[in-house]
Specification:
317 residues; alpha/beta; 9 strands
Length: 317
């Protein structure tokens, strides 16, 4: 397995800036036969767009990702973000994975009608295959769905883990169900391209009284290690586990997420634009064979708004 060699390219790309496509967002509640409440971000410019199912992190509201999801949408994607559980009422991991699978099934059956209702009939969801994505525990949920732990016959085209976490520590009893990490390199049986975006400060404690939010042994490093090619790994060196959330996260939940994890000192907008841009560049490359943006980042990672460690990308064997 050889690391991808990158030819010298003009290191410029638009993915780290807001895209040119106008967008809006709307809510879908469970009265529309949807298994969980949804926040949907969609372009308003007529066209057919790939769909991303995005799973939020542990005890985090889906609305806290609005700026990040809007950035991705502005480059030509529909994002469906379910609220899988509420603060104080987290589900067992297997239940959470099950509901994520049910939302995926609903997307193929119910999303198009909602797009027509809230936008217009000229916005089409590309439903032949879906993209799975998630942050923190939601990243682990996305991996679990991709690995077949949810009852769905859907074909998924790509998988995105944003600082995925599988538990409080590498001790098996402290991991959330299902136990998908094996400790064996390239053990994930995934027939799709995968990108893992980690944080440099995730494994650090916010204080002496709190555990790290993305502990060593169960964080992005292990998730990437267990992926087979094609896969990519990026690390935002100077940012923390919750730094891709909105600046304004109101209420008790919002106050908690601001202090529970180690945070970077730079503007969070730089982190959001970096994560959003990496997602867009990766999907353009692997879904549309448009490699310009990803190659530009690989040739010069410093073009990203937030500092990146040297990325690693492996092509399919």
């Amino acid at each position: 397995m050889a690391q991808q060699s990158v030819q010298t390219v003009l290191a410029t790309t638009d993915v780290f800036q807001t895209g040119d496509i106008k967008w809006k967002h709307f809510n879908v509640d469970t009265s529309n036969t949807c298994p969980k409440p949804l926040l949907v971000f969609t372009p308003t410019v007529p066209g057919t767009y790939p769909v991303i199912l995005f799973c939020h992190g542990f005890c985090v509201l889906n609305s806290f990702y609005s700026s990040l999801l809007a950035h991705i949408t502005s480059h030509g994607f529909i994002v469906v973000a379910p609220q899988l559980f509420c603060m104080g009422l987290p589900m067992l991991g297997l239940c959470e994975v099950k509901f994520a699978g049910k939302v995926a099934d609903w997307i193929t059956e119910g999303l198009q009608a909602q797009l027509t209702k809230h936008v217009n009939e000229n916005i089409e969801a590309k439903l032949e295959s879906l993209i799975l994505a998630g942050h923190s525990r939601g990243g682990k949920t996305a991996f679990a769905v991709a690995l077949g732990y949810a009852k769905t016959n859907l074909k998924f085209s790509a998988l995105i883990g944003i600082d995925p976490v599988a538990g409080l520590s590498k001790c098996k009893i402290c991991r959330t169900l299902p136990h998908i990490l094996t400790g064996v390199p390239q053990s994930f049986n995934l027939n799709m391209p995968v990108v893992v975006i980690g944080t440099g400060l995730g494994p650090e404690k916010a204080s002496c009284c709190s555990p790290p939010c993305a502990p060593d042994g169960v964080n992005h490093v292990e998730f990437f290690t267990e992926c087979k090619p094609p896969c990519a790994h990026f690390i935002t060196t100077e940012y923390g586990h919750m730094d891709m959330l909105d600046d304004d996260t109101p209420g008790i939940i919002g106050g908690t997420v601001k202090c529970i994890c180690k945070n970077g000192t730079g503007p969070k907008d730089l982190m959001r634009r970096t994560v959003g841009g990496l997602v867009v560049a990766f999907l353009r490359a692997y879904l549309s064979a448009q490699w310009k943006d990803l190659n530009a980042i690989l040739a010069d990672p410093s073009i990203a708004p937030a500092k990146l460690d040297d990325p690693v990308v492996y092509l399919a064997a």
